[in-house]
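in:
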């Protein structure tokens, strides 16, 4: 059933007779209703696998990453969907973990250093890299992904940018170079998040 949202001249959502209403890039549209073909080609299967793998990776990041840091800065889609759009090409069976961007933003990013795993803790150093808009009082958050188990470990709290290091428990008995470490900075005015940086990556040793 189609829904007229605010009067006869308003955007239409859903199917009405032979047309479908929706929005694309904040623009309302109507198009003919067509049942899509599904030839299930090899390229389609590969794309579906990429999508599935990317979604599986991104789901655990919704609360700690996307809801907390990126949703308010992305228009017309969620931070989760933005991540899928920007990173799906990497999930071709052999992701280049350093290419993934968990966050994207204009704040000067801290530069991650050589991360180390000494069971059960991961230590993540960084250079604060204030650039032209960073502050010592910015906060840095960290996420560690074990590529063998598919399990994430999240820093228990943000750290001040000026501290240039954090350490937290990711679990005992892990393999060092399976630990993919990501950090990003967040800038606040009082308690209001106003800007974030791109994430940076290192593989623990």
């Amino acid at each position: 059933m189609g829904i007229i949202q605010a009067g006869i001249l308003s955007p239409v959502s859903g199917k009405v007779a032979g047309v479908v209403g929706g929005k694309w890039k904040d623009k309302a549209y109507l198009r003919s209703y067509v049942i899509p073909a599904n030839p299930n080609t090899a390229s389609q299967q590969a794309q579906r696998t990429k999508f599935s793998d990317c979604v599986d990776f991104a789901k655990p990041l919704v609360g700690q990453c996307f809801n907390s840091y990126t949703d308010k800065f992305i228009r017309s889609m969620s931070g989760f969907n933005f991540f899928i759009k920007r990173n799906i090409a990497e999930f071709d069976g052999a992701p280049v973990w350093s290419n993934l961007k968990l966050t994207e933003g204009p704040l000067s990013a801290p530069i991650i250093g050589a991360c180390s795993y000494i069971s059960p803790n991961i230590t993540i150093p960084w250079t604060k890299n204030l650039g032209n808009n960073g502050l010592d009082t910015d906060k840095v958050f960290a996420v560690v992904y074990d590529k063998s188990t598919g399990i994430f470990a999240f820093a228990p709290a943000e750290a001040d940018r000026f501290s240039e290091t954090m350490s937290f428990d990711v679990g005992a008995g892990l393999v060092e170079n399976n630990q993919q470490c990501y950090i990003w900075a967040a800038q606040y005015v009082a308690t209001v998040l106003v800007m974030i940086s791109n994430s940076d990556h290192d593989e623990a040793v």
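note: The chain has two domains: 3-32, 42-203.
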